[in-house]
Amino acid sequence: GLSAPEKKAVELRAMELTQVWFESNGYAVKDTSATQPYDLLASKDSITTKVEVKGTTSSDPSAILMTANEVDLHRSEKGLTTLAIVSDIKLVKSTPPTASGGRLEVLLGWDIDQWLTTPTAFRVERQV
Q1: How far apart are CA 51 and CA 41, in angstroms?
Q2: Would you say the C-alpha torsion 68, 73, 76, 79 has a positive or negative sign?
Q3: What CA–CA distance (Å, rounded) separates 58 from 28?
Q4: Consecutive sets of 10 residues in the chain, 128 residues long: mean pLDDT of each?
Q5: What pLDDT score does 58 carry?
Q6: Are 51 and 82 in contact (CB under 8 A)?
Q7: What's the pLDDT at 83?
Q8: Left (φ > 0), alpha (ψ -120 to 50) or beta: where does 113 sit?
Q9: Residue 31, SS3 per DSSP
Q10: Using an 8 Å Cβ cutoff, are 65 and 33 in contact?
Q11: How far apart are CA 73 and CA 61, in angstroms?
Q12: Tell me, what's the pLDDT at 110?
């Protein structure tokens, strides 16, 4: 039930907390969210991981939404990617909306197959 600007504020807060965590743990971080099916590329020594960042105002991040491309990436590179979930983000619905706080969980070497994946949307196309 969030507006597009509110969703963007939550997303940016989640990205900020995740990037700070990786940098404070010695990783070099690149934002790839505009060009790749993952949000951050984090590198440390000879280790590189593709990071998917999910942010929510909910206190229960037991389920998240992912695109088909995100699911495909995490399946094809299972155990080599990272899922970062930021929950409990506080949203102020002002103009523009602002987001603060948040509780970060970082799942390095994430195995998507340990989670249930359920299709929740379909592309419906007119037949010619």
Answers
A1: 6
A2: negative
A3: 29
A4: 93 98 98 95 96 96 91 94 98 94 97 93 88
A5: 94
A6: yes
A7: 97
A8: alpha
A9: strand
A10: no
A11: 21
A12: 95
Of the candidates 42, 47, 44, 50, which has an alpha carbon nearest to the alpha carbon of residue 82? 50
The tally of CA atoms less than 13 A away on the side-chain side of residue 79 is: 0
Q: Is the whole model's pTM more than 0.85, yes or no? A: yes
Give the Cα separation of 101 and 120 in Å (integer).
29
Q: Side chain identity at 72, as an amino acid letter?
A: D
Q: How far is CA 2 from the centre of its chain?
A: 17
CB atoms within 10 A of CB 9: 23
In eight-state DSSP terms, residue 88 is E
- Which residues are CB-contacts of 127 (< 8 A; sequence separation ≥ 6)? none
List Cα–Cα distances, 5 to 8, 37, 40, in angstroms.
Answer: 5, 21, 21
